[in-house]
Design a protein that fits this description.
By secondary structure, the protein is of the alpha+beta class. It folds into 3 domains: about 35 residues; about 90 residues, Ribosomal protein L6 (Outer Surface Protein A, domain 3); about 90 residues, Alpha-Beta Complex (Outer Surface Protein A, domain 3). About 25% of the residues lie in helices and about 30% in strands. Strands 2, 3, 4 and 5 form a 4-stranded antiparallel beta sheet that branches. A hairpin with a 6-residue loop joins strand 3 and strand 4. Helix 1 crosses helix 2. The radius of gyration is 29 Å and the shape is extended. InterPro entries: Ribosomal_uL6-like (IPR000702), Ribosomal_uL6-like_a/b-dom_sf (IPR036789), Ribosomal_uL6_a/b-dom (IPR020040), Ribosomal_uL6_bac-type (IPR019906), Ribosomal_uL6_CS (IPR002358). Belongs to the universal ribosomal protein uL6 family. It is found in: Mitochondrion.
Length: about 260
Amino acid sequence: MLAPSRARVLDRAASSSAAVLVSLPSFLVPAFQTLRTTTPSRPFSASTTRPSKLGRTPISIPPGVELAIGEPKVKRDMTTYLKIAKRTVTVSGPLGKLDLEIPPFVLLDHDVAARKATLTVQDLSLKQQREMWGTTWSYLNRYIMGVSEGHTAVLRLVGIGYRATIDTRPLKEEYPGQQFVVLKLGFSHPVEMGVPEGVTASVPQPTRILLEGINREVIMSFAAKIRRWRVPDPYKGKGIFINDETIKLKQKKVK
């Protein structure tokens, strides 16, 4: 609270000594002038700006995966509602194709011969560009793995009578061949959830659900919607667990 106000007063004293004499008592002016000359100004943070360790790492492109960088197009940003010129990077592979929009300040260097991609930003001093550097790297690396190897998610149903099956209902499908996950979780009726497009669901065991696809964000979002029906209980340990999720059991409250 004091530092910005003091800096403003000192700047006014340097520009106009008469104004300072009017705004400050006469016995405080020498103290402020001495403090201005003896105390050097320094930034709030003493740490130096370093490039992103994740963002500066080259991304290896496996055989069969191709990157296509499109021309900048003006689109409305969903977070700031501003029109920003973004480029679209198309990642195509043996399992499918995905499109990734990158900010205009993120530069992508695609080495076709070495099959590597390197990301850089225009200005390292800006916090937003440093944040999006590593985020864009993670999205691009995840897309490359998705179109080449694919992503999976395993849901474990823990509880007495918890069961899952896969069914197809042509009358309610949103797209041709849509699958439906039917869950029995102790309610008076089964829970039916439509599998999103691009995701394949299977039940290797009655208490296991396997989700497969190329877009990990869609897979984990659908897994979170399934988990929401039976969140793991910390007292009984029952519920729906995603992948290697574990919880710490609590002791029962004894009166």
